[in-house]
Amino acid sequence: MTNTATEINSSTGVSEAANPSVTDTDTAATASPPATITFADFGLDPKIQKAVLEQGYNTPTPIQAQSIPHVLAGSDLMGAAQTGTGKTAAFVLPIIQKILRHASNSASPARHPIRALVLTPTRELAVQVAENAANYSKHTDLRAAVVYGGVDMKEQVGILRNGVEILIATPGRLLDHIGSKVANLSQVEILVLDEADRMLDMGFLPDLQRIIDLIPAQRQTLLFSATFSPEIKKLAQSYLRTPVTVEVARQNAAADTVKQVVHMVSSADKQRAIVKVLEARTRAGLSRQCIIFTNSRLGCAKLSRALERDGIKAGAIHGDKSQGERTLTLDAFKSGAIEALVATDVAARGLDIPDMPCVINHELPYNAEDFIHRIGRTGRAGSKGDAIALVDASEKRLLDDIEKLMKRKLDVKPLPEGAPSQSRPSFSSYGSAPAKMSDPFFYKPYEPSASTASTTDPAKPEEKKVGITPAKPAVGALLGGFKKK
Ligand code: AMP
After folding, report:
1. Is 469 buried (19+), middle (13-18) or exposed (0-12) by CB count in 10 A?
2. How confident is the model at residue 460 (pLDDT cuts 50, 70, 90)?
3. Which residues, including other chains, have CB under 8 Å from residue 121's CB and lie 6 or more apart?
4. Domains of the chain (ranges plus CATH)?
5. pLDDT of residue 161
6. pLDDT tens across 283-328, in order?
7. Which end of the chain is more exposed for a tag (fewer CB within 10 A), N or C?
8. Is 86 in the pocket of ligand 1 (CB under 6 A)?
9. Is the CB of 61 under 6 A from ligand 1?
């Protein structure tokens, strides 16, 4: 008989070491090993199955195969899953199934209390989860909505007042709505903490505590995190009850479908190196679409403009951009009008860009885990991707940290033919004085990354900003945007 678990692995690119497995932890109940599972085996309502089929999903991904039965059975769950593993459907599908009994076509708001709450660290992730929830529930009478900061509250207030069963929210904005008595969590049955590690990194713990205190103790709690740090385990001990622990990916690993390469380039040459890399990709018949990560907002904006001058269709997405601007840029990127999306770490997680062929690190991040999240933008759901890091000699310590975390050495290769001459030191000269940089800006890329500084995180202050109306309504603030098609 065919081993579907193996099929799942090959179709998602999750490696042997990343085999779906369920682990025991101090608090975890033992779960059974993966069985041969198809979507039909979950016993989901036909309305949900129809929506899944319409998405074109044939086989559950490992995190789905492992998590969905436990969520349906009512267990609390800790899921360790990388972005791109299909973790959103792993919790959204069973949530819809579990609250479907409450679905009502009544117009009365009282018939549509919040039954499931998903908390996410960033608005981008919130919007994506909400889009998934809207898609998977579109044949039901359940309502899905998203609220996040940085946009006017008025539209969100209207939608919350009309009633919504599945609410996806960033913590700060949700507390604003709770404070003005627009959101009531007293009937929440299922709570999801998505990218919980990121929420802790961003300093959301006090907000999380305030929110969770308002949710009935008789609830089911699901926690998803890229890694299970001691802090995450502590959070789980506080708020989860004998959770099943599901791990589908080796912790701190990148998908094996991602081809990683390091080019040694002095900071002054990095911009031209990107141009050459993209030219080489064009010559090789590869897509020029790429995400380029920078460490600072200023550097992000500057690099985007410089690439534009070099004839590359570029757009910047970082914490100083309004939600409307970000949405427009992302839409342009998705449509192909922009080929190089230059981003800070605020965009490193949560963005769902299918088949992203290439990620370029213009600088290495200061937090090694951010590197994993950055390159997680490619090689998603089993597709192939290239992750290219442009590394200056001064970044040796950062590269060491990354290699230590990933437990592997990255391949160092020369830049493609025609690339700027590499006035860089060889690998062996790492640790020596950095090459002289002609652009003083790049000497100062130090803006703490999102996960290392809670107070200066680009996403956090935006939580509190109000009154900025996006040029174009973001997909779902929109909630209005999530009316059934
Ligand atoms: P996520 O990790 O939830 O962000 O999902 C990553 C990507 O995988 C998204 O583009 C999903 O639409 C896609 N996806 C989720 N589940 C499946 C599945 N069972 N088969 C194929 N693609 C999927």
Report:
1. middle
2. very low
3. 170, 194, 195, 198, 199, 201, 202, 204, 349, 350, 459
4. 6-251+462-483 (3.40.50.300), 258-430 (3.40.50.300)
5. 97
6. 888 888 999 999 988 999 999 999 999 999 999 988 777 777 887 8
7. N
8. yes
9. yes
